[in-house]
Amino acid sequence: MKSVERLALPAAMTDAATRRLLAALDAGGIKARFVGGCVRNAVSGREIDDIDLAVDKPPEIVTRALERGGIKAIPTGIKHGTVTAIADSRTFELTTLRRDVETDGRRATVAFTDDWQEDAGRRDFTFNALYADPDGALYDPFDGRTDLKAGRVRFIGDPDRRIEEDRLRVMRFFRFFAWYGRAPIDEAGFEACRRHAGTLGSLSGERVAKELLRLLAAPAPVDAIAAIAEAGALDHWLPEYDGVARLEALIVREPEPDGLRRLAAILPTDADTMAIGKRLKLSTQQSIRLAEMLVREQGVDLSAGPRAWRAGIYRLGKSLFQDWLLLAVDAPGDWRAALTYVENWTAPELPVSGTDILKLGLAPGPRIGALIGAVEAWWIAGDFTADRAACLAELERLAKTK
C-alpha cells in the first residue's frame, strides 16, 4: 500500500499522549497507523472524537509493549484483536490487522495478518479505509477521499457481499449518509441495502437503536431517514414510522440535535412507546422520556403567554416542557419566545409540605396528599405569587373545609 499524500495531522493526533503511545509501540517493534474515523475526519476538516489505530502485531505483543511503556492496556476485544490503551487519561483503541475467516451476518471469525491491503479490504466504506502514518503519510486504497469530497457513501467492492458479512452495515450505510453524504445517494449501495433490509430482524435491538439514534443526531438527517424508510430498513424495527414532516419542522426549532427527541418526531402520537422501547432495547429512562414526549394532552397552549408557560414548566419540568414545545410544531403561538422563556425561567418550590399539614393535627393518610395537591393547584393558579404564609393560610382553610 503506497501513500498518496501527506496529511497535516490535527492536534488530537499529535499531542503528548498520542506521541507517548506511538513511542511505546515503536519501541516494541510495532508498526501503527491511524485508521477510520479520525483519519476520515482529519481529511474532511471535522472534529475528531476518538483515536483508533491499526497495528501489525497480535494483541499480546501490543499489550506487552504498552505495559513496558507504562501505558495501561485493557483487553476489550482480544478475540477480534482490539486492545484499549489509556495514556495520560486519554483512551485509544488499537486493533491488529485482520482478515475475515468466516462471517454469518452478525459476527465474524477473524485471523490476524500483517497485510495492510487485506485489512483495508474487509472494511465497510471507502472513506473508512483511510490510514495515516504518525508523520501524516496518507494511504487511500479505495479512493475514499474522492467519495468523501463528493458526499458519496460507497461500499468497498461488492455491496451485497459487504452486507452479507455484517447486516448492520445496512444501518451504517444510512447513518454515514446522514453525517457525510449528500444527494444523490449511491445507487448501488442503496439497492443492496433494499435487497437485504428483510434480514435486519436477526440483529439485536441495542445495535439497531444505537445506529438509528446516531443517524438521527446528525445535523441534517431528513434525507437519510426518508431513504432508510424507502429501502424498507425500518419495516421490522420501527413499523410505526410516520414520515419526516414533523422532523423537518423540529430541526428548525431545536437548539441542538437530540436523537431521542427526533425519534419521537417520526412517530405518530398514538404510538405504543412501550413496545418500541422493548423492541429497540431502549433504557428505562429513554422509554419513559419517549412516552412522555408523545403525550399531547398534557401540552400547553403556547398562545396563552408567559403565565401559561410558567405553569407548564412547573407541571412538566423544564426538560419535558422543552421537548413538548419543540415537538408541538402545529401548535399556534410564539414558540421562539416560549423557548427563550423556558431556558431562562426556573420554577419555584411549593412553600408548604405534608409536614405542615401534620402540624395542624391531621392524621397521616390519603387526605394529606389531597390537601397538598389542592394547595399546589391554588398556588399555580395564582401564578406562584403566594408566599409561605399565604400558602399556610390556604392550607388551614382547606383543612377545615375538606
Q: Which percent band covers the strand fraction?
A: 5-15%
Helices and strands, in order, run as: EHEHEHEEEEEHEEHHHHHHHHHHHHHHHH
Q: Low-confidence parts lasting 5 or more residues at pLDDT below 50?
A: none
Overall radius of gyration: 27 Å
Largest β-sheet summary = 8 strands, mixed
Percent of residues in helices comes to: 40-55%
Continuous helix count: 20
Q: What order do the strands of the largest sheet run in, or round the barrel if closed?
A: 1-10-9-2-3-6-5-4
Structure characterization notes:
The chain is of the alpha+beta class and 402 residues long. 48% of the residues lie in helices and 12% in strands. It contains 20 helices and ten strands. The chain has helices at residues 16-27, 37-44, 59-68, 116-121, 144-150, 159-165, 169-180, 187-196, 205-216, 222-230, 245-253, 259-265, 273-279, 284-293, 306-316, 318-327, 335-344, 354-358, 366-381, 388-401, and strands at residues 3-6, 32-35, 51-55, 72-77, 82-87, 90-96, 98-103, 108-112, 131-132, 137-139. The strands form two sheets. An eight-stranded mixed β-sheet has the order 1-10-9-2-3-6-5-4. Strands 7-8 form a two-stranded antiparallel ribbon. A hairpin with a 2-residue loop joins strand 5 and strand 6. Helix 7 runs parallel beside helix 9 (205-216), helix 12 crosses helix 14 (284-293) and helix 15 (306-316) crosses helix 16. The longest helix is centred in the last third of the chain and has 16 residues, at 366-381. The protein is elongated and about 85 Å long.
